[in-house]
């Protein structure tokens, strides 16, 4: 929708670094500090039994 001029979006900057047609800027708070969001990982206990999943969880 943004690309077609129908609104705006809040996206991680990594998605738009190569897109020269979209205007991007850092959102800042009242103290001129960039807004940072926390990211969470949720998984089922059974998932950790899989070697690849376990390595990924402990990597993060």
Tell me what you see in this structure.
By secondary structure, the chain is an all-alpha fold. It has one domain. The longest helix has 9 residues. The protein is elongated and about 45 Å long. The model has no long low-confidence stretch (mean pLDDT 84).
Percent of sequence in beta strands: under 5%
* Helical stretch tally: 1
Secondary-structure class: mainly alpha
Residue runs with pLDDT of under 50 for 5 or more positions: none
Average of the residue pLDDT scores: 84
Strand count, sense and barrel status of the largest sheet are:
none
Number of strands: 0
Q: Please estimate the helix content.
A: 10-25%
Query: H/E element string?
Result: H
How large is the radius of gyration?
18 Å
Shape: elongated
The overall number of domains is: 1
What's the end-to-end separation, in Å? 32 Å
Organism: Bacillus paralicheniformis
Protein name: LysR substrate-binding domain-containing protein
Short description:
The chain is 15% helix and 0% strand. With 60 residues, it is an all-alpha fold.
List keywords for this structure.
1 helix, single chain, 60 residues, mainly alpha
Topology summary:
Elements: H1 51-59
């Amino acid at each position: 929708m943004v690309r077609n001029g129908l609104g705006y979006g809040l996206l991680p900057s990594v998605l738009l670094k190569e897109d020269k047609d979209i205007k991007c800027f850092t959102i800042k708070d009242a103290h001129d500090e960039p807004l940072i969001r926390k990211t969470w990982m949720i998984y089922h206990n059974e998932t950790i039994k899989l070697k690849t999943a376990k390595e990924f969880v402990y990597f993060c």
